[in-house]
């Protein structure tokens, strides 16, 4: 039997974190932002069917970057958690905070106990009545959780994206902006996309609408390519 | 082989992980349990030019007692479908609720909607799993209808307590008042009805059912209670407003009062 080499906990955690961070940075970025019309979720994603953005419940949405199979299993678990809770209690008892803390616990458990940490970063977004009442949670591969005011940028070269995003909005009020402007700003900031109608297929866009036209309890709406093309084209 | 996850079905997930939350897993009931719980009664559904109409009266009975005057037995299950339920009310409402979550859950997990046939089959299996309860007098018999986005038309499905699934054409009715409602539908239904005319036919069929069946409630002008009516077409399911139903009920009462006939 071979003896195991001693690795200090600090070194072990650092190695795991470096590994996860590298995996996440390889992927394309997602921007989520709270604005006047609701919460916009914009991802650079050329695939029309493998989503990085998803509906969880009435006013709760999910966005992720990193390894598809890992965040997809987390998304499905989130839908199961929310539907079970809503079915056994009430639709009002499903909250973004509850879901985010469940995610934080499972990400944390995987990070410390499993052979390999999840290479994912998640956002759990809950729509409120007004932009200041929206709650945006960002979750890291190690289970750390933070509530972010206004917007979350994940994946890719995050610091550079954040800088470009802040530069766009300096002197402008994101909370008062319409959804179209937010989508155009994200298209401008995301590196592989341009602000033209022809780039619509490179974007995956969804929103949590503050007021739904149908009066439905479900506020999540996915925008189709023609709609995105129209919005991007209108910016010129 | 690696085991795959529970798949897109909420029901299968509950069966596997949370069987305590399922409606059909209760202890055996006393022999006369069926008579001791509120029962919902008449539901009608009919096709019209653009889709389908489904309507249900507002009465629940427990033996010869009126248990509720304002119960709702027709529910929107998703954007393109509605369900109406007759039978043991508590269990029926549970099944309608579970079925609604089942459809929404599938849609969220898969990222696409179930086909109308898929929805009807799913409901059939839920009714089938209620068989043991049905044999103790707790039967739940739904009427399911919706807009089929593949064929571009409205379709109606009925069920029996064994989970048998039957597609109905033109119109159908379930519940204790259904023989009378069906008679009215046969006379009043015509091909190519408009939406308003179809709602009128549904309300009048329920009126006829209430006239002859004591378990079916008629329009309640004292309390201002009208049937629950939904239309489903290519734009989705819409509940017909009370003000419109109040006018229709008033018309029917006025016409019948004026004719002064016995039956």
Automatic annotation (TrEMBL), chain A:
The keyword Cytoplasm applies. It is an enzyme of class 3 (hydrolase). GO terms for cellular component: proteasome complex. Its EC number is 3.4.25.1. One of its GO terms (molecular function) is hydrolase activity. InterPro entries: Ntn_hydrolases_N, Proteasome_alpha-type, Proteasome_asu_bac, Proteasome_sua/b. The keyword Hydrolase applies. It holds the Pfam family Proteasome. Keywords: Cytoplasm, Hydrolase, Proteasome. It comes from the Bacteria. Belongs to the peptidase T1A family. This is Proteasome alpha subunit.
Automatic annotation (TrEMBL), chain B:
The formation of the proteasomal ATPase ARC-20S proteasome complex, likely via the docking of the C-termini of ARC into the intersubunit pockets in the alpha-rings, may trigger opening of the gate for substrate entry. Interconversion between the open-gate and close-gate conformations leads to a dynamic regulation of the 20S proteasome proteolysis activity. Keywords: Autocatalytic cleavage, Cytoplasm, Hydrolase, Protease, Proteasome, Threonine protease, Zymogen. Pathway: Protein degradation; proteasomal Pup-dependent pathway. CDD domains: proteasome_protease_HslV (cd01906). It catalyses: Cleavage of peptide bonds with very broad specificity. InterPro entries: Ntn_hydrolases_N, Pept_T1A_subB, Proteasome_sua/b, Proteasome_suB-type, PSB_actinobac. One of its GO terms (molecular function) is hydrolase activity. Its EC number is 3.4.25.1. This is Proteasome subunit beta. It comes from Paeniglutamicibacter psychrophenolicus.
């Amino acid at each position: 039997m071979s003896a195991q080499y001693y690795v200090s906990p600090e070194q072990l955690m650092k190695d795991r974190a470096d590994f996860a961070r590298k995996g996440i940075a390889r992927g394309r970025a997602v921007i989520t932002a709270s604005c006047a019309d609701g919460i916009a979720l914009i991802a650079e994603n050329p695939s029309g069917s493998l989503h990085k953005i998803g509906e969880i419940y009435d006013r709760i949405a999910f966005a992720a970057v990193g390894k598809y199979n890992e965040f997809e299993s987390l998304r499905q678990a989130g839908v199961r958690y929310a539907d079970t809770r809503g079915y056994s209690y009430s639709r009002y008892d499903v909250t973004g905070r509850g879901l985010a803390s469940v995610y934080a616990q499972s990400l944390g458990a995987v990070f410390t106990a499993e052979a390999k940490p999840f290479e994912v970063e998640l956002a759990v977004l809950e729509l409120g009545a007004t932009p200041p009442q929206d709650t945006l949670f960002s979750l890291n591969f190690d289970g750390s959780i933070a509530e972010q005011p206004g917007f979350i940028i994940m994946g890719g070269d995050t610091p550079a994206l954040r800088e470009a995003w802040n530069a766009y909005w300096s002197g402008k009020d994101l909370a008062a902006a319409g959804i179209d402007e937010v989508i155009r700003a994200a298209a401008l900031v995301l590196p592989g996309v341009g602000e033209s109608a022809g780039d619509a297929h490179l974007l995956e866009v969804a929103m949590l609408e503050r007021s739904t036209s149908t009066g439905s309890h479900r506020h999540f709406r996915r925008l189709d390519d023609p709609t995105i093309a129209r919005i991007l084209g209108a910016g010129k | 082989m690696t085991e795959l996850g529970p798949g897109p079905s909420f029901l299968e997930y509950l069966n596997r992980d949370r069987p305590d939350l399922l409606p059909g897993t209760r202890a055996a009931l006393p022999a006369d349990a069926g008579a001791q719980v509120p029962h919902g009664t008449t539901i009608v559904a009919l096709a019209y030019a653009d889709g389908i109409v489904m309507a249900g009266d507002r009465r629940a009975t427990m033996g010869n007692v009126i248990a509720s005057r304002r119960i709702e037995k027709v529910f929107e299950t998703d954007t393109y479908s509605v369900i109406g339920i007759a039978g043991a009310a508590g269990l029926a409402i549970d099944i309608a609720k579970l079925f609604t979550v089942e459809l929404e859950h599938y849609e969220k997990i898969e990222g696409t909607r179930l086909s109308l046939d898929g929805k009807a089959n799913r409901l059939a299996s839920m009714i089938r799993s209620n068989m043991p309860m049905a044999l103790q007098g707790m039967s739940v018999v739904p009427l399911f209808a919706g807009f089929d986005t593949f064929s571009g038309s409205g379709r109606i499905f009925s069920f029996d307590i064994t989970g048998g699934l039957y597609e109905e054409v033109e119109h159908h009715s379930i519940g204790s008042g259904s023989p009378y409602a069906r008679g009215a539908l046969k006379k009043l239904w015509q091909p190519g009805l408009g939406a308003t005319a179809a709602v009128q036919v549904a309300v009048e069929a329920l009126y006829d059912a209430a006239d002859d069946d004591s378990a079916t409630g008629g329009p309640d002008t004292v309390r201002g209670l009208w049937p629950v009516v939904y239309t489903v077409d290519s734009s989705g399911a819409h509940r017909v407003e009370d003000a419109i139903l109040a006018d229709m009920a008033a018309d029917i009462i006025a016409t019948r009062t004026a004719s002064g006939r016995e039956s």
